[in-house]
Amino acid sequence: MPHINILGKQVYVKSYTPMGKGGWIFWYLLFGGLSIACLWLGVSSYFVKSSTTGYDGLIFGLIGAAFFGLFWIIPLSVAIFRKLTSSTTKGSDQASPVVDQELEKLEKYKR
To answer: From residue 18, how far is each of 60, 74, 78, 97 by CA, in Å?
Structure first.
């Protein structure tokens, strides 16, 4: 468990994610594969169609691809956004408001 030293006290710091890089790679491959499979099945059912079938296979395939695609597109875009914003704030002397609040709480116990 990660701890940092603030005013001489060891403070537990919760990490951003419970998964490591391997878990995220598995996550992206799983849901990316599911979205591609839905898209492939939908398009293949569109070209197998006859006069009695409509576009239902294509529509459900596209809906499935969009649904499963959100499970990997959103976390990936959030991770990229965090990476881009954290690299611009590194080295700044200004602490976040949450850290300031935690330091104030620790000051109360120090008295």
So the answer is: 33, 17, 15, 24
- Entry pTM: 0.56
Question: Phi and psi at residue 7, in whole multiples of 5°?
Answer: 55, 40
- Report whether pLDDT(27) > 90: no
Instruction: Provide φ and ψ at 24, rounded to 5°.
Output: -70, -40
Task: Judge contact between 47 and 36, C-beta under 8 A.
Answer: no
Q: Is the pLDDT of residue 88 over 60?
A: no
3-state secondary structure of 17: coil
CA dihedral 50, 52, 54, 56 (to 10 degrees): -100
Helix then strand then coil, in percent of the chain rounded to 5, is 70, 5, 25
Give the residues across from 6 on adjacent strands: 9
Query: Domain residues of the chain, as ranges?
Result: 18-86
